[in-house]
Amino acid sequence: MGTDNWKGHVNGILYGIQFDRALDDAVVTRVADGVAGGLYPGGPAETLDALTQALRYQGPLNDQVEAPHSEESIRAFLGKLSAALAARA
């Protein structure tokens, strides 16, 4: 999966969490449920692959969809989401 592909998945997730004040476990569960339920394109396996690549990426993840969360918070959230999706696989 190229940068453009995983970036699209991450941007979709960031768009979905932009109004959440805290990126807590409830938000992780909500997004994981949305991925499993088809709310996000590509399904769980493709999203998990995108998250794996995103977390390896050294550049900013919050550069296109400006969610009001720090880069550190976004990376921590995506790591928790990745773990939640992997646990469901």
Question: What is the compact description of this entry?
Answer:
By secondary structure, the chain is mainly α.
Please describe what this structure looks like.
This protein has 89 residues and is mostly helical. It has one domain (3-88). Helix content is 66%, strand content 0%. It is globular, with a radius of gyration of 12 Å.
Strand content: under 5%
Helix run count: 4
Q: Give the overall form.
A: globular
Mean pLDDT: 92
Query: Low-confidence spans: pLDDT under 50, at least 5 residues?
Result: none
Order of helices and strands: HHHH
Attribute tags:
mainly alpha
Write the layout of secondary structure elements.
Layout: H1 3-17, H2 25-36, H3 43-56, H4 71-88
Helix pairs in contact: 1-3, 2-4, 3-4
